[in-house]
Amino acid sequence: MLEKAYKFRFYPTSEQENLLRKTLGCVRLVYNKALAARTQAWYEHQERVGYKQTSAMLTLWKKQEDLDFLTEVSSVALQQGLRHLQTAFTNFFSGRTKYPNFKKKRNGGSAEFTKAAFKWKDGQVYVAKCAEPLPIRWSRQLPAGCVPTTITVKLEPSGRWSVSLRVNDTRGLRLKPTNKQVGIDLGITSLLTTSDGEKIANPKNLQRLHKKLRLAQKSLDRKPDKKSNNYQKARLKVAKIHAKIKDSRLDYTNKLTTQLIRENQTIVVEDLAVKNMVKNHKLARAISDANWGELVRQLEYKAEWYGRELIKIDRYFPSSKRCSNCGHVVEKLPLNIREWECPECGSHHDRDINAAINILAAGLAVSAPVAHGGDPLWRRWLVCGATVRPEESKSRKAGALEAESPYQ
Fold first, then answer.
1. Which of 112, 289, 352, 404 is flagged as catalytic?
2. What is the reported pLDDT for 384?
3. Residue 350 annotated among the catalytic residues of the structure
4. Active site residue 196
5. Dihedral sign of CA atoms 171, 177, 178, 184 in order
């Protein structure tokens, strides 16, 4: 059984939009008040406030005269907002994310409804306190026999409404096994290069609309009064351009990852630290537009769905600098050098293809040597003394060695 989410656009009536906007506003208010209370309790009394205490606070807030409007929306959505805040603090204390931020109205918002707050009847979704079903544009049907367990209503900054239906899919989605294996080297000029020598072009969605976006942002900056109608119109125009860029980028990534999963049994990629890479201000825009993190994330869950194998090798592995023929590692390989010859064996390499071949060999070597015992590629690697992790160095021991970036 797989837990999957199906996202759809919907176009609410005026009554539904008023109710949903009020719900999103109340969820945002409760979230921010609980975050402020938890922060204040820690700084003033060094006390940790958890979900149980904030839930009790919510009950008291509803009884206040100036906050009695909280009773006009579903209490489930408000409680789910507090649970999301608890998750944010859990991730913060575990070191996975930064300290939670306050929610802002201009970012839209979302509200989550569990089974107690919505009804699924005759293929339609009825939200609590709303008599009519949500007018969803069904671009695809839910799997037969699947009933939503949770729904999330979201308002994007561009003004679009969407609903996400979470279901438990009991279908068997595993694809027929194949013997094909591929290593992938992610890049900027070419979005990815495979060990088979194929290069997939980078669509560069942001660059395609960058001029239009820049002009719209300039127009927005010239309107100082943020409460004026002209400011809101300009803000909405910028948000719509961003939404178009996001949609085209996500659509391309989804189609590409699905193709890779269908054609290959084993896929090997580098375990990239994209958050660290975007700190390079010269390449931050190009890296973000390439969407590497989302591409790898989609490969992960699709490999699990369809019975494929995804292998991640260490991010410090020098895939570009190592000769895929003899294993020799060159000391320096600047970004402007796209082809090079090995000083040991004289092999001529395309930088990206060579890196992809090395990534595949490294993944096969560390995943299951017994299973791949007949593969001459990984055997040649062991003979050459290749290692997935780099040799110890002074910078490595000092903890200052940086990962070799895919754009190297």
1. 352
2. 45
3. no
4. no
5. positive
